Amino acid sequence: EVPPESITLIFERFISKERGEPPDIDVDFEHERREEVIQWIYQRYGRERAGLTATVIHFRSRAAIREVGKVMGLSQDVIARLSGQIWGWSSAAPGEDRMRDAG
């Protein structure tokens, strides 16, 4: 047992007695090795002690433009101009000319 109040730990909330349950682990790993990691966890801890959850994110067009723009290193003003070309509920992509004009 580790007394979290006596040690400065980033994860101290996970080992607190007030939590009332064992800690969980949130790990991100490359998708190519997903099955390898899952099988390792099952072998190490057993299927009866391991669980899987997943979060699926669905981006609307404007949010997708913003995320891709960040990854590509575009400036915030260019990202704003590009994403501003898309109407919030539209599933249609803006024309190539409009995107070129936006930057």
From TrEMBL:
Domain Bacterial DNA polymerase III alpha subunit NTPase: from-to ranges: 1-91
GO MF term list: 3'-5' exonuclease activity
Keyword Cytoplasm: yes
Annotated GO biological process: DNA repair; DNA replication
InterPro entries: DNA_pol3_alpha_NTPase_dom, DnaE2/DnaE/PolC
Keywords assigned: Cytoplasm, DNA damage, DNA repair
Stated name of the protein: Bacterial DNA polymerase III alpha subunit NTPase domain-containing protein
